[in-house]
Specification:
This protein has 299 residues and is an alpha+beta fold. Strands 5, 6, 7, 8, 9, 12, 13, 14 and 15 form a nine-stranded antiparallel sheet that branches. Strands 2-1-3-4 form a four-stranded parallel sheet, sandwiched between helices. It has a two-stranded antiparallel sheet with strand order 10-11. Helix 2 packs parallel to helix 3. It starts with a strand and ends with a strand.
């Protein structure tokens, strides 16, 4: 008897690449023992609603889209009692695909579909942002964090990852403004200062640009990696920051990396955040909590 698979598709992600080889994807899922029901999203939030409402009726849930689509599905699963959450498969079709890079998933749709039928199910930590919001791989504030959701969809589709870089360059003059913050970890570490960037992640890749060593990041250790970049006083310091980040040198006077299961961020005034590349609202104080092994994901 075939198992029931719920497949959520974002039809505009990655230049609508889901159409290429879609027949083969469905064949592979069928041959792998699944009877697949397809849900197409039409607007932001649809994937969350679909997963929250229908996921318990299926043996496995999967999505085709970018990290934003995956994030929405994760949020929907978090609304389902843990014992009723089916394992989650991912066929990456976005512009950056940070989570796919972290999981080592292939970018080819048919290969990714094969992974859903043959892959290993592993636990995956999901972040809470304040009271009722979630993030899959990063929540951040500061320089360039709004590039993803401010980049027009048509540019994302036409240029892919290059669109993010071009949009970031165009915003450079207004982005290099510090944010005063106080960060306290559950383990009692407290850091305060003016920061160009701050964020918590559960990924070896953030925006396809910041890379963390795979030996440092575990997707199911109950810990975030929090990257803090202090405001440079001049061009020379900014250059050293860029060199540090690209060289994964995260322990110096400008760049600091913390690990914690919970982080409290406090600001002098409301600050805009992003969650998984999408607008996350403005907060003056927020607690990020790690929901340890909240979802099982197929890797």
């Amino acid at each position: 008897m075939k198992k029931k698979l719920m497949l959520i598709i974002n039809p505009v992600a990655g230049k609508a690449r889901y159409k290429v080889g879609f027949g083969d994807v469905m064949r592979i899922l069928n041959e792998g023992g699944f009877r697949t029901t397809v849900f197409f999203t039409e607007a932001r939030g649809d994937a969350t609603r679909f997963a929250a409402e229908f996921a318990p009726q299926f043996d496995t849930i999967a999505c085709i889209g970018g990290d934003g689509t995956l994030s929405e599905v994760m949020s929907g699963l978090m609304a389902v009692p843990k014992e009723q959450r089916p394992p989650l498969g991912y066929i990456p079709m976005g512009s950056t695909n940070d989570v796919a890079s972290t999981l080592g998933l292939p970018k080819d749709a048919t290969d990714a579909a094969w992974r859903i039928t043959h892959g290993e199910i592993i636990p995956f930590d999901v972040g809470s942002f304040g009271g009722g919001s979630f993030f899959t791989y990063v929540a951040a504030f500061g320089a360039f964090t709004d590039v993803s959701y401010e980049t027009p969809q048509n540019e994302k589709a036409a240029l892919g990852h290059l669109a993010y870089i071009l949009e970031g360059i165009s915003q450079l003059p207004r982005q290099l403004k510090p944010t005063h913050a106080r960060i306290t970890t559950a383990e009692g570490v407290c850091v305060e200062g003016d920061f160009l960037y701050g964020g918590a992640s559960n990924s070896t890749s953030v925006a396809g640009l910041v890379k963390l060593n795979k030996d440092l990041v575990s997707l199911s250790d109950g810990m975030f990696e929090a990257l803090l970049i202090r405001n440079p006083k001049n061009i020379a310091e900014f250059s050293r920051i860029v060199t540090s980040v690209l060289g994964q040198n995260f322990n110096n006077e400008h760049v600091q990396l913390l690990q914690s299961r919970e982080l409290k961020f406090e600001f002098d005034k409301p600050v805009a955040w992003t969650r998984d590349g999408e607008a996350g609202g403005e907060v003056q104080e927020v607690i990020l909590r790690n929901n340890h092994s909240a979802v099982n994901i197929i890797a």
